[in-house]
Specification:
With 298 residues, the protein is an alpha/beta fold. The protein folds into 2 domains: 3-105, no CATH class; 110-251, 3-Layer(aba) Sandwich (Rossmann fold), CATH 3.40.50. Helix content is 41%, strand content 11%. The protein has 10 helices and 9 strands. It has helices at residues 15-29, 54-61, 67-73, 90-105, 110-121, 145-150, 157-170, 184-192, 225-245, 256-269; strands spanning 11-13, 40-42, 62-64, 77-79, 130-135, 176-181, 204-206, 248-251, 281-283. The strands form 3 sheets. The chain has a 5-stranded parallel β-sheet with strand order 7-6-5-8-9, with helices on both faces. Strands 1-4 form a two-stranded antiparallel ribbon. Strands 2-3 form a two-stranded antiparallel ribbon. Helix 4 packs across helix 10, helix 5 (110-121) crosses helix 9 and helix 9 runs parallel beside helix 10 (256-269). The longest helix is centred in the last third of the chain and has 21 residues, at 225-245. The chain starts with 10 loop residues before the first strand and ends in a 15-residue tail after the last strand. It comes from Klebsormidium nitens (Green alga). This is O-fucosyltransferase family protein. One of its GO terms (molecular function) is alpha-(1->6)-fucosyltransferase activity.
Amino acid sequence: MLACLIQNGTLRWNEKAEEILMSIFERMQFPKKCEEVKVLGVEMDVSASSEVPHYLRASWDIYPHGLWDTLVTEEAVWLEGGGDVENASNQDRVNLLFSITTLWMFRPLPEIRKLSDDIVNSFSNWTPPLVGIHIRQTDKKMEDPYWMVHGRYRNLTDYGHAVATVERKCNASFNSVFLMSDSQTVVEMALAHPESIGLSPLVKILYDKSVNRSALARGHVHVPVEIKKEVQDHFVAAAYALMRSADHVVCTLSSNVARLFFQYATAKGRAAQVSAAGPFATSLDYPDWASEEQAWFP
């Protein structure tokens, strides 16, 4: 992870926070094993923000009852650079919750883990640091903010330019890229000419070699039944490979998959990030009601 970009005042957490949350998740998943199960309740109210749609305002309010006090008491949370942890923003607190939840939920089956390992191990000469790039296209048109304004997907070089920006800020260089896209055309272009997505021709590109992306060309819901499970398995395996290998992720938060990557990245770094650009991920878009500083939403 790129610790050079973690700013003072950022909410941080440790392994104890993960243990506390995951024990709650286990009790909620298997309630008969427990004498008492804490239910989700309203712990904080940020509904006064009129800029946020009502259905997302409710999302900021949901927090396991008493959890924040427990995390503070157990010294499981603090602010980077010092200061009163009670000053942590509501968004950062919810980001913590969703990040650790993602870490707990995304535990692939053994056969998917093996497939994920096979994807990574098929490239023998890659070296860290590695940046993950997720490019969502095909049937995303009517949900993609850029498409809705310009009638086309954004320039692919925008992704590479975002990588270069992170490299400049950290005085670092990504030796490898894990590329994930539902577009076979995008993958083929990047492999043939890395500069087509704004990358150096010297960078090593990892990707899932065996998935049939052409089946996604008409949209995810139109994948033929006979290969749907194979495509889904490869999707999960590739996602897991990207998330566990990447030191930084470049994506678009208009994609649900990108939000998964975003939250897994912050979970790995054990620090909150709600801005579009930060130590763990860079998003090239965000909802029109959001801002660059508060781009992530649950």
